[in-house]
């Protein structure tokens, strides 16, 4: 379906203000295919699980790099998100060991330690924007857990600069392209922030190269692993550091905020989750191995990621002409698919807008397991997010700790989704602290 110029202008405004809702409205009006815009700003939307399968199964046609070009100034030319081919595959293989069970256990421990410190500072009556808290918490623990204490010492200034750039990148793709092309104060501030980020990260890389031992963590792993015999360059290392920090905290902090919003909005679900945590964990810290004993919290995590997938959309650039659902696309077209739209299709999901963790109970009569193209909060196949297991563990563990140690009243109502790099709650998620319990000794 192609729209008129007036339709395009209205859609452009909607995408900047309410991107998730705009895509869902577009899919309802147009069906599986819609296009809007003209020339270099033209966008083709392919909606639904069939579209997702078509895009993911045709990686030779749809390239990641072209779809995420606006992220290159921040993520870097060699970041996994924006690269294709052998270079991407080599770098992905090198970093995969950092997301195995033992390192993930360590990262989760850092996060929970920092969370306990944060909870210790809360007092009854405090009003807390959890989205703001989670962004700082996950970012600082990611930098510390992934890249060590030296870089973590600068997490406040790094975070401030990252926020400047991410603010610019949370507009729709056409607006991002304009802001990075036409001189403006927003882009000038972003470029200055990028320069400071580069200097700080490259200084840490240089420090480690000059040391006798590159150290531990992800950066140490990448500096000591050669894979095909070729060491990673400083540029590859810089891009890996920055992109992993951003990918880890931008999406996870949003997902955590949505999880609290959804769970604390439903008193029945909240009560069941709290009961499971108290019976299943007792006084124990919700470490990775213990989360397996909390199936309902796992359903809560899955349901949160269905309703509020942090990556609500993905983009590709077509390398050649293609045909889908009767629509003929051209080489060079920007193609967008949407996890958010797919996850709320009534033909796939019963009562799709309802927060219902029990839908993930495999023992439930009528349970139907969704396919990889119907439920894809972390992507599909060889390009599935490397940190998906860590993200799920972080969501479940933080929810468990909040249920163990706090009594909170949700103050935010009718929170609207916004953003592009990650779908976050507009205006945050505000709670009132009613009570905070001290961590209980084990044994």
3D architecture notes:
The structure is a single chain. Strands 1-2-8-5-3 form a five-stranded mixed β-sheet, with helices on both faces. Strands 4-12-9 form a three-stranded antiparallel β-sheet. A two-stranded antiparallel ribbon has the order 6-7. It has helices spanning 5-17, 19-30, 49-57, 64-67, 72-75, 85-95, 101-120, 130-152, 155-169, 173-179, 185-210, 217-224, 234-265, 267-281, 288-291, 295-307, 339-342, 388-405; strands at residues 33-36, 43-46, 62-63, 127-129, 314-318, 322-324, 327-329, 334-337, 406-410, 417-418, 424-425, 430-436. It has a single domain, classed as Cytochrome p450. The longest helix is centred in the middle third of the chain and has 32 residues, at 234-265. It is globular and about 60 Å long. α13 (234-265) packs across α16. The protein contains 18 helices and twelve strands. It is of the alpha+beta class and 443 residues long. This is Cytochrome P450. Belongs to the cytochrome P450 family. Keywords: Heme, Iron, Metal-binding, Monooxygenase, Oxidoreductase. Its cofactor is heme.
Any idea what the CATH superfamily is called? Cytochrome P450
Helices and strands, in order, run as HHEEHEHHHHEHHHHHHHHHEEEEHHEEEE
The total strand number stands at: 12
Number of domains: 1
Helix content: 40-55%
Organism: Actinomadura alba
InterPro entries: Cyt_P450 (IPR001128), Cyt_P450_CS (IPR017972), Cyt_P450_E_grp-I (IPR002401), Cyt_P450_sf (IPR036396), Cytochrome_P450_monoxygenase (IPR050121)
Cofactor: heme
Family: Belongs to the cytochrome P450 family.
């Amino acid at each position: 379906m192609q729209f008129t110029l007036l339709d395009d202008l209205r859609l452009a405004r909607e995408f900047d203000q309410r991107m998730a809702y705009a895509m869902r409205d577009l899919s309802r009006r147009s069906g599986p295919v819609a296009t809007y815009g003209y020339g270099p700003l033209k966008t083709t939307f392919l909606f639904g699980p069939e579209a997702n399968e078509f895009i993911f199964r045709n990686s030779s046609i749809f390239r990641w790099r072209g779809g995420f070009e606006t992220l290159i100034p921040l993520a870097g030319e060699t970041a996994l998100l924006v690269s294709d081919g052998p270079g991407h595959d080599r770098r992905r293989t090198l970093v995969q060991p950092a997301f195995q069970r033992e390192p993930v256990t360590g990262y989760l421990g850092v996060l929970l330690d920092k969370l306990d410190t944060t909870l210790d500072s809360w007092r009854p009556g405090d009003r807390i924007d959890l989205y703001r808290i989670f962004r700082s918490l996950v970012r600082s623990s990611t930098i510390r857990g992934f890249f060590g204490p030296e870089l973590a010492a600068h997490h406040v200034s790094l975070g401030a600069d990252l926020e400047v750039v991410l603010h610019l990148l949370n507009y729709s793709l056409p607006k991002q392209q304009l802001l990075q092309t036409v001189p403006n104060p927003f882009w000038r501030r972003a470029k200055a922030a990028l320069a400071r980020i580069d200097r700080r990260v490259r200084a840490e890389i240089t420090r480690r190269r000059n040391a006798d031992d590159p150290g531990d963590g992800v950066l140490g792993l990448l500096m000591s692993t050669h894979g095909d015999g070729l060491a990673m360059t400083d540029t590859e290392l810089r891009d890996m550091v920055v992109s992993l920090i951003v990918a880890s905290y931008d999406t996870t902090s949003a997902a955590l905020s949505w999880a609290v919003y959804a769970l604390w909005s439903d008193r029945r679900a909240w009560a069941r989750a709290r009961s499971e945590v108290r019976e299943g964990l007792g006084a124990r810290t919700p470490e990775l191995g213990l989360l397996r004993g909390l199936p309902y919290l796992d359903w809560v995590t899955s349901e949160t990621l269905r309703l509020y997938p942090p990556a609500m959309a993905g983009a590709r650039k077509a390398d050649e002409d293609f045909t889908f659902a009767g629509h003929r696309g051209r080489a060079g077209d920007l193609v967008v698919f949407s996890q958010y739209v797919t996850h709320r299709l009534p033909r796939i999901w019963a009562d799709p807008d309802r927060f219902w963790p029990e839908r993930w109970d495999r023992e439930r009569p009528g349970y139907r397991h969704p396919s990889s193209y119907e439920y894809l909060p972390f992507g599909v196949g060889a390009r599935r997010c490397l940190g998906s297991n860590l993200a799920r563990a972080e969501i479940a563990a933080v929810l468990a700790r909040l249920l163990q140690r706090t009594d909170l009243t949700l103050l935010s109502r009718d929170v609207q989704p916004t953003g592009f790099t990650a779908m976050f709650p507009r205006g945050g998620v505000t709670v009132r602290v009613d009570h905070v319990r001290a961590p209980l000794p084990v044994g």
